[in-house]
Structures are given as C-alpha cells and as structure tokens.
Fold this sequence. Notes:
CATH topology of the domain at 4-278 and 474-508 in chain A: Nucleotidyltransferase, domain 5
Oligomer: homodimer
Largest interface: A-B, 49 and 49 residues
Structural class of chain A: alpha+beta
CATH architecture of the domain at 4-278 and 474-508 in chain A: 2-Layer Sandwich
Number of strands of chain A: 23
CATH class of the domain at 4-278 and 474-508 in chain A: Alpha Beta
Largest sheet of chain A: 7 strands, mixed
Radius of gyration of chain A: 24 Å
Shape of chain A: globular
Number of helices of chain A: 21
Distance between the termini of chain A: 60 Å
Helix content of chain A: 25-40%
Amino acid sequence: MSHFVLGLDFGTNSVRCLVVRVQDGKEIATSVSTYKHGEEGILLDANDPNLARQHPKDYETGTETTVREALAQAASFENFSPDKIIGIGVDTTGSTPLPVDRDGIPLAYQEKFADNLQAMAWLWKDHTSFEEAAAITEKASREHPEYLAKCGGIYSSEWYFSKLWHYLKQDSELAEATYAWVEMSDWIPGFLTGSLKPENLKLSVCAAGHKGLYCEDWGGYPAAEFLSGLDARIPELMSHVPNKAYAVDTPAGVLCEEWAGKLGLPAGIPVAVGAFDAHLGAVGSNIQPGTLIKILGTSSCDMIVAPNSMNLADIPGICGIVDGSILPGYYGLEAGQSAAGDVFNWFVNEIVPGGKDLGSHESLTSGAEALKPGESGLLALDWNNGNRCVLVDPRVTGLILGQTLHTQPAEIYRTLIESTAFGARVILERFEEYDVQVGEIINCGGIAEKNPLVMQIYADITGRPLKISRSAQTCALGAAICGAVVAGKDRGGYNSFAEAQAAMTGLKDVVFTPILENQNVYNRLYKLYRDLHDAFGTKSWEGNLHHVMKDLLEIRDGARVTG
Amino acid sequence: MSHFVLGLDFGTNSVRCLVVRVQDGKEIATSVSTYKHGEEGILLDANDPNLARQHPKDYETGTETTVREALAQAASFENFSPDKIIGIGVDTTGSTPLPVDRDGIPLAYQEKFADNLQAMAWLWKDHTSFEEAAAITEKASREHPEYLAKCGGIYSSEWYFSKLWHYLKQDSELAEATYAWVEMSDWIPGFLTGSLKPENLKLSVCAAGHKGLYCEDWGGYPAAEFLSGLDARIPELMSHVPNKAYAVDTPAGVLCEEWAGKLGLPAGIPVAVGAFDAHLGAVGSNIQPGTLIKILGTSSCDMIVAPNSMNLADIPGICGIVDGSILPGYYGLEAGQSAAGDVFNWFVNEIVPGGKDLGSHESLTSGAEALKPGESGLLALDWNNGNRCVLVDPRVTGLILGQTLHTQPAEIYRTLIESTAFGARVILERFEEYDVQVGEIINCGGIAEKNPLVMQIYADITGRPLKISRSAQTCALGAAICGAVVAGKDRGGYNSFAEAQAAMTGLKDVVFTPILENQNVYNRLYKLYRDLHDAFGTKSWEGNLHHVMKDLLEIRDGARVTG
C-alpha cells in the first residue's frame, strides 16, 4: 500500500506544497501560492530600503490555498487519497521572527496594530537592525566569544536578537503588548498542531542554533545577564518560550482538528519540528557525512554534516555549526556565498541591458562557452554582495581586473561565473583544512538545474565531479522527508533519515566531470584569485601584486596559442 | 600689411592644411584630405593585427589636395593672396619611417615593390617589431643604459630602430635596395624643399631624439658598434643620413619650384624642419616653461619644457626628454597616458552597446554628471591599454573595484573618467618631484574641446585650474607658428617662438576651476588609487589592501549622507 507525505516550503515570496510518495520519493503533486500582502509577498517601506516584512496571515491563507490545490492535483494519482498522508514537514525562511501575544496570536492580528509594519513578521532579509547587530557582535566578542565562534564570528542584522532588540525600540505600545518573539519556523508547526502558546512550542534547533545563539554547551539561549544588557525586557520575553530546541526528527505535534478541516485532511497526522529551507534542501538532496550539498541560486548555500560524536573545532569563516540543525545526531555546518546568480543577473540586467541579442543570459552564455579558461585575461572577486564565507565581511565589494580595450561582455560574464566558483573552492578547502572531508558534491537549485556552463566551470575549478539532485524542489522534498520520519516505520514511514533519504531522494543522470586541461589553467588562476582574496579580504596578508596582471597575460597568451 | 603662414598637419588618417594670419593667429582657412590608400588611409594585413602601413604617395597627393583647397578657401578672405604666405611648418605622426633609395625616393614607388607592404611607410602604431623592441631594450640596458634613461627605460616597438631592424629581416631584395630609413617628418619637408637626398635632409630632433636614441650627449645617434649588434647592415644605412638633427626654428630649406607649381604658391617660401604632431600641438597651445600642455583625445600627451641650461635629472617614467624637441633652447619633456578617451569608448562601444538611450556617451555623461565624487563606491585603474607613464609598462591591464549588485553603467563610466584623471595626476606629481614645476595647465584635443564633465573631474582631481586652448587645431597651428619663426621678423614673421606664440595663440574663455569639496573627496580617493597603482604596478610595493574596499564604502556612505 502506498503512503504519502506533505512538504510545506515557505519561501520569500510564496509557499509551496509538495505531495510525495513515501516508498520512492515520487512527487505526485505540487502547487505554489504567492503571499497576498505587499509586493510579491513583501511589505516594504519607501523610506527605508532595509525594511522587509511579511503579514503572518499570508502564512495561514497560503497554507490553506496551496495544500488544497496540491491535494486536488494528487486526487487523480492512482492509489492516492488524503487519508494516506502520514506526515507533514515544514521549512521556512529565517530568521523571520514575529511578535505574538500570550496565546501565540500575532500582534498584527489586533486591529490597532493591523497597519503597523513593526507588528508584522520580520523577513530574513530585513536589515533595519544593522546597528544592533554590530553592538551584539561587539558585546559578545568581549563577554562571550564562544557565542560568536559557532556563527562565524559576526552576529548578523538578519538574525533573531538583532531584530528583537531593534523591534523593542520602535513602538512602546507594541513592545508592551508583546509576550514572545517567535520564529516563523516554530509558529507554523504551532498553528498546524493547534499548539501556539509560546511556552508549548517545540522550537527548531535549526533556527535557534543558527540565528538565536542557542547551544546546549552553554545551556541553550544566551545568559539572561547578557540579554538584559541589550534590552532589560528581553529576558522576560525569552522566559515565555522553552529553553529547549529540537531536530527535525521530533514531532511538533499532530495536525489539529481546526487545520485538518481547513486543509481537507484527517486530524492527527504528525507534523515535524520546522527547519530552514536550505537545511531541508540539503536533506532533500541526500546529505550525509562526506557529502557537500550546494544550493546554487541567486546566492549559494553549502551544507555539510559531521557526526556530533566527533571533536569538531570551531571553523573560522563558516556561518554556523549547530548540533542537529540538518540531521539529528550530526553537526549541521552551513556556509555559503552572499551572491552567485545575483552577480550574473546584475551584469545582465544592470550593465549590459541590450536586450536578447546583445546582453541576455543566453547570448552571453553562448559567447562564454566559446572561451577557453584563461583566454580572456580577466580575473574577478565575487564580492558584489559582500563575502559570507570565509571572510564573513559584508563590507567588501566586487573587483574585476585584466581589462583591455578589446574586452568583451561575454568575457566578463564568464569571469564572473569563474569568480563565484573560486569563492566556492575557498569554502571547500576551508572545510577540509578543519577535517571535514568532502567526498561527494551534490548540487541543487536554479543554477544547478538550468546552467550546464556554470556547472562545468564549477567542476573544473573545484576539481570535483558535480552531481545534480533529482528533485527540482529539494527544500519541499526535504520537508516531506521529515514528515516520513516523524510518521515512523509503523505508520508507513521511516525510522531514520538515512532510510528515508535512500528511498526518497536521487540524482539526475548527468555528472559534470572536471576536464584536466581546464583544471590546470584554473589552478594557476586560483592562486591569483587567492592573492586578491587575501590582499583585499584579510588584515594579515602582506605582499605584492605586481605579478597578477602579468601572469594573467601570460596565461591568456598561452590559451590563445593552444587555440 | 597682413602676412600668412601654412601649417601642414599629417595625422593618422588625413592631412590638414591651416592658413593662419601671422599678426594674431586668426585661422582663415582649413581643409582636410583623407589618405587614399587602405582603410581610412591605413594599409592593413588581415593576418597580422600588429601591421599598420601607409603609402607615401598619399603624403604627396594629400599635400597637393589640401593646400589647394585651403588656398581656395582663403582667397575670399580680405587682404589674402598666396604671395603673402611667408612660411610653412610641418608636423607628422611618428615614428613613421620609410625606406628610400639614394635619391630619397620611396622604394614603394618602384614597380616591383608597388604592392609590397614592407616597402611602405611604417605607421607609428605598427607593432610588428615588438620582439626587436624587447631585444633593443635588453641590449641597451646592458650596454648603454644612458640610451634608455632619456626615453623612460623601455625602447618601444613603435620606434625607428625596432622597425628598421624588423624591416631588414622581411625581404632581402628590398633590404638590398634600401639606401636609407627616413622618418616621414624629415621626408615631407624634404620633398617640399626639393632636397630629398638622404645626406642632405635636415633631420628633426623631435623625431631623432624621441624615437631614434639621438642625443648630443653621446654624439648623436647610437654608436655603430651598438647598431651593428642589431643588424650588421644598420650602420651603413645610418651613414647615409646626417648625424645632426635640428629644432623647428631651423629652416629645412625653401619651397622648391616643382612643389610651388603643384601647390599654387610662389617658390622660395621657407619651410621649417618637421616635428611630431603632439609637440607642435604644444606649441600651438602656447607651451612655455611652467606650462603643461595636455593633449586629450583617445590617448593623452603631456608636454612640458624646461630650460636646457638647467641641470635636469633623468626623470624615471617620463617617455622622452629631448633638447629642442618642442622649443629651441629647451628640453622637451613628453609624457602621456596610453589610453584616455579610448577607455570611455571601450566601455560605450564594447560593454554597454545598448544604443542611444541606454549606453551612449550622452546618456552616460548625463548619468555621471548627476553623481558626486565618491558616491559610487567605485575605483578603477586606467590601464586598459597598458601604462605609458610613469610605469612604462605595456603588460598591465585595467581594474575596477567596489561593485555591488546595484552598480550602474553611469557609475562605471564616471569611475573610468576619474581613473584617467588620477593617472594624469601621477604624471603631474612626477614632474614636480623632479623639479619641473607646473604652474599652468592648458588643454587641447577632442576631449578638452567637447567634454566639460571630463575637464571638471580633471580639475577636481589634479587640484589645478584647467584652461583650454583657443584653437581646435593646435597641431596645425603649431606648425604654422614654426613657419612664422623660420620666416623671421624681416619677412613679416617672428624672431622667436615666445613672440610668435604670444601673438598667434590664445585661450578660450572657459576655465575649469577645482571645487573644494570635490577635491577633498578626490584626495582621499587618490590615496587609494596610489595604493592600487603601486601594488599592481611596481615590484617594490609591500603592504596590504584590506582598507581599500572599506574606505571606499565609507567615502560612499559619506557622499550619500551629504546628498
């Protein structure tokens, strides 16, 4: 008999529902619902480009719409019926916290706060709290350096406590009405299971660990004396949520009657604890020790796990190391690049917007494909959106050098691709320097799906065969796998992620294999990239760059001769 | 009674004739004739992008056409008649040498060589001799470092002996037929004065000094033993031209009967010794000690003079220091940038070719004008065509840094302009470091004529008021001034350049004055430019560039706040 699970994937602009067959991971139905409020689901403030909020109601109505639509689609699949759904998993963006009252109801639902942007969910990419972030980094580095060691050395304006602190300064009436500050990844399983009271939430260790400085080494969330040093009201707010967080093999509860009715499902289906989208994307791509998952889109996320029995050092420049944040029993390590596809999009949309023939991705890709490694004489740093890893520095910028009076857009385009691949190699090498070995690399996301040129360049530059995840919706698939695990074998699911992933994930046939002669050229270019990377990115570098342009010309001349 | 002079300006694609009134420099007629052979007057080889030749016949027919046309125009000017022309001056490109027989007749005129590209004039920008140039540099630095000290430390593939040496390797029949290797700047006054025999040429010290390693300090041209080390045939060829060169106050002779007939002028008019276009452009812009002339076009030439009584050190990184090459009695110092307008043209024509609305000079200029200094956060090195001064290094390339995902084409465009201005400031400071003081700066050329944005940025970055030469044809005007000086006061001209320039040159009303607040920002940016310049351009630099991107962001944030 077939069983099915639901994966709910709450992205930046929309929520997706995926219906997956448990036995083999077949995706039998999928639907997407864009959030209704704001621009593409995001509430903006014309006076403050840092502000990005969401209306929590959209999470509820989006869930209802997309689940009903997916179920309607699935209805025509043989052997499917809603009562064969045995588990539900949830992934969300984050840190995306929202203020709630003592019943866990968003303050945004109160009439007096209905138009108050401060009362909404603070979307992950809201950067209004940059001053608070810097102050937290400064204070933690002085008082609790161990807090920062697990999150790459810098506390971000995107994260839970920066946002909470800033929030409390905005509107005293709102601050007073606030009972708790709840991550979206906890609040959604909360309403699905009818357990919204903050004290009763089953917190996600993925969210708390990566964004909330939560770690069992120091007893969970940061010490009250540290938090009261930010704002005296924070310790009380934190006392209203549990000081205990869980991995995704833990059920948050079961689908409540109310939501069962709304969704057209039987009540009682286990709902897994939430996690962030990238982390469950890694699960949907079959992450396991020794396998690096790269989620390649506008930015990149690099996820890997290491047994939590291992004596893992803090790895400088890796964004987060959290026990259980990806798979239970393993440290989840998160790294990534603040821009990948966004750099190519910038070049196409802003710099060469000459339309389809002149400056489209298609025409530039075709020009770039015709070039050999090194042939352009160009080299770039991929820092147009700062550097997330391993420099952890938002105050760095893009660089390109080697231009002549003949340099063409397609040459720049290829060079920008190469620069992100060099950045990826830096991360890969950092993992291995700290004994986290990378045996296999599986890629997913828009670029992995659609861009063979980028994938081949990444293979040539990293020197690794690159595989592609079979699913085009690995985040939602990962959430669905959590549903299968919290269901357990007895109800038709699985007892472990290893079993569930083995059955439900897979690879595409294509593998991008490094081409030796390209690798040789790229190894020379990578040395030069490292020179620039270290010269502009680190304080400790000392040296001279006189050779860089000359070496590039020599490599270029060599590439042209062998043409 | 009014007197007039002719200035003949032999450019890369055409020859211009300017008729000028001696008393006040009024330009009463001007005409241009494009050379007839090749593409826009240049003979090319599809198999060799380095090759650029010209047919010497074009110099003769071009002279005839353009002088006759100018005289026809002038005929309607009151008080003008051809017999009131008292002197002729000539400027040409260079080094543009050609092979001639013992009568000074180009070998290209012989039927058997009529289609032989090697028999033509080797245009200044012919780079086929790059290997010979490197070998000459290497040999001279070993055996005669003093030769290189006067020409910036590197002998160029564009110059006289590189071309001669390469020429001799090409075609043995042609080499055997060759009696002398004559600069175009000597050959043209030669035919005008009916004195083409190589032994009788009055050589230009501008050409010989800047391109032929000629200097009276070591007895004129390089020693025969040095030249025979290149090719054993060179000393004999050199023995057929005088080992004595002259400044432009020397008459090459007088207009001969034959050419008087061709041009419709009386015979006997004094013709000045030739010089290069940029040098006479400086004369036409009223160069004098303490006045820097900047000729700003696709590339830039920076010309200044210093009394030859002064004990002038060799200035590292200045292209040429030649006694009398601009004004008699003064060292002529030539510096410059290998690309200026060419960098802006590259960006517009190659990178953002989106047509008039998207990526024209006009639209980018208008976008760039709206920006404040530092507001883009960008910084560039202006080395897309190498660096002529002060690094004297063709093996460096362009660089731009500071890009974000929001960087716009107009920001890049302004940054490229600024980069060339920073490069100009480096040259200015180098002159002054070696006691060549710059009191006044006068600009001419296409950019000075037409681009107020560029001129204001140059003023702000150099911190100097920038004046613009009155004439739009300063090279031809400078040649005409030479005509007035070789005529002398008794015939209605002048006895000195000082008198002639005072009467015949002038300034436009506009002066670009530095704006203090812009200067302050640009002084900060210039420090960063120097860091990049020295880090990538010199072997001796040691340091760290970690501050560069951060300082740029700080400057940017400051500029935006004050907006």
